[in-house]
Amino acid sequence: MSPTDVERIPLESSSVYIGLKLLWTARLYLIGKKFPIGHLTNHEWHIAVHDIVNYLTQDEIISQLTEIDAAAYFQILSIVFNNPSA
To answer: N or C: which end of the chain has fewer CB within 10 A?
Structure first.
């Protein structure tokens, strides 16, 4: 789909698209990458992990994101326990 395609607007504003984009961004930060490029310092990474886990473990957020894609949600949250950068 081209960047100027008008059919992109409703798709990109859907809750599923935004939820998946949120999970993708959370994954980047949990593995220590900055968006759009670069890497987090150790201090930045610790702060990011705390904030992301705090957000992703709120009851309402868990409910919404697991409804969108439960497997992706739990895979991304498992990074916290399996990341050798800790």
So the answer is: N
**pTM for the whole structure:** 0.79
Asked if residue 57 is part of any domain, the answer here is yes
Domains contained in the chain, number: 1
* Tens-place pLDDT, residues 34-82: 888 899 999 999 999 999 999 999 999 999 999 999 999 999 999 988 8
**Residue 32 is part of which domain span?**
22-42+52-80
